[in-house]
Amino acid sequence: MKFKSYIKQKWLLSIIAVTLMIVYYLNFIQLPPAVSVELQQNYKYKLILIPLDTRPPCQKMVVDAGKMAGVQIITPPSEIMDYYTKEGDTKKIQKWLMDNIDKSDGVIVSIDQLLHGGLLASRESGTKQDESQILLKFMRDLKTKAKDKPIYAFNVLPRITPPPTLESDSKKMIKISRLIDEISIFENEDDIKLLADLKEDIKQEDLDIYLDLFRRNTALNKELINLAKEGIITKLVIGQDDGEDFGIPNMEKKSLINYVHSLGISNDVVMITKGADEVALSLLANFVQTKENYQPKVYVEYNDEKAMRTVMPFMAGSVGSTVEEKLVMANAKKVNSPQEAGLILYVFIGNDKNMSTQRQSALKIKKYLEQGKKVALVDLSKHFSANEVLFPTLLKEDVPINELTSYAGWNTASNSIGTALANAVIYKAIRPTFNTTNDMLTVEYNRLNINYERFLEDYYYLKEVIDVMNITLKNHGYENVNDLDMEHNYIWMNKLLQSDMQKRANQLNNSEVFKMPFKVQTPEGVFDLTIRNLQVDVFFPWPRTFEVYLDVRLNLYRLNN
Q1: Cα diameter, the chain
Q2: Closest CA to 388 of 467, 466, 436, 459
Q3: Are 279 and 239 in contact (CB under 8 A)?
């Protein structure tokens, strides 16, 4: 009996071994014959970026898109820049910018960084009059030195949340902000009484500081608009960060819109829009468009009829209004059919009631790609849930994701719509201008790198892994996941993050859609290309789990036909 049992076990082990060998062979060995493509990154232009802060969306994503555009993005040395709650050294950043403007073809500059040392620092205090005047003089001096080089600038409206340094109840302060806006519109007597009652519960000094933050910011923005009208600033964008339906930020935004209209300034010169983190990327797209004289023709499609009217979290308006703003930002011509379009912007807004649209949306995108259409995909969830987004269905339905022009599904609707559209516009503007095989393939390689970074961060990290990280921290007694202990849990969490994200990258690497070849027209003919060996390097750039710094490494191959 023991002998028979031994034979049976040996037989089972042999079967398992053979099965594993077959799986390994099919996944890692039996690949079509191909030749590795070696590429040289070349640049046509050089652009200085003074980012909103050092988070990847504000800096790294612009640098990566610059590579795709053949634009070398130069940023200040890290030692003078902000780091989380540590503000940047504004005087040194200004000096660095002035010293280096001669070495570039233009500049994209965050006013919040130049004046305060970053976005977080800008939320802590209002702009003093003398500081504003010094900055405005600096911008004039910069233009004198830049001569005909473009200066793209952007500034962010203060959000509705009061500075954390104020002692009064922040929730009551936010209610006051909402009521002040609502009363200015509706003049409801009950709201007026409620506002008076709330004011009695907070310190008048705190309310004065809060209101003064907006007054000073409005005054600064009007001065910046004047600089744009004079031609000192080539294009000014004023962004609204973390918006709501009502609040003092909305009042400031309306005031500035009216001011721009009173001066007769076009959207090409001053743009007031929802969003903040993605603005520098949008301005990079504008720079490339101007250089290459490109205006996109865009057809917009939504996954259902309600998507356009949906108001997403942290947004002061509908998805449709945000799309329209980003199209204006991109100087796009909106067309009425896919046949007229050079680019299809597909906006998927998932929620717990429209999950039935996932398959039909995936198949629609698949059809567009099979027809050779260029598709920029925005993939969002109303509840920030993995179940509500489209990406898993793309994999399930074998949609050739390697052929997507761009993809984004991170944070707010304005962030994602602006990112997907800007990357697609950059690709469409620059791709026809290259005339060597190396440069054409480099554009495709950079497009793929950008997209896979978005797949891994926007879906795998932000919809899955971040919860694992936060739960792990809390299970070990760390309640505040937005303030990691650099001496204890930061290194440990980075190791856990790297391990978990590489597992997700391996899943994607072994999927059918990852292995799908795609065609690229070159001066040497049509190349059949494929990508292999997806690797990811990832860590927390700031001591919190909210975002990650993620680098993707791909190998590009040409199939032997």
Answers
A1: 97
A2: 459
A3: yes
Q: Which long-range contacts (CB under 8 A, 24 or more apart) does 86-95 make?
A: 87/116, 87/117, 87/118, 87/120, 87/121, 88/53, 88/113, 88/117, 88/118, 88/121, 89/117, 90/114, 90/115, 90/116, 90/117, 93/50, 93/117, 94/138
pLDDT of 165: 84
Element (H, E) at 499: helix 489-509
**What global pTM score does this model have?**
0.92
- Please check whether residue 6 is in contact with residue 14, taking contact to mean a CB–CB distance below 8 angstroms: no
In whole angstroms, give the CA distance from residue 264 to residue 550: 43
Q: What is the DSSP letter of 83?
A: B
Task: Identify the burial level of 318 via C-beta atoms within 10 angstroms of its C-beta, where 0-12 means exposed, 13-18 middle and 19 or more buried.
Answer: middle
Structure tokens at 533: 């060996």
> Which distant-in-sequence residues (6+ apart) come within 8 Å of 246 by Cβ?
178, 181, 182
Rounded to an integer, what distance in angstroms lies between the CA atom of residue 328 and that of residue 288? 16
User: Does an H or E element contain 502, and which?
Assistant: helix 489-509
Question: Which residue from 162, 157, 242, 249 is spatially nearest to 208, judged by alpha carbons?
Answer: 162
- Token pair recorded at residue 80: 């003078």
pLDDT tens per residue, range 267-325: 999 999 999 999 999 999 999 999 999 999 999 999 999 999 999 999 989 999 999 99
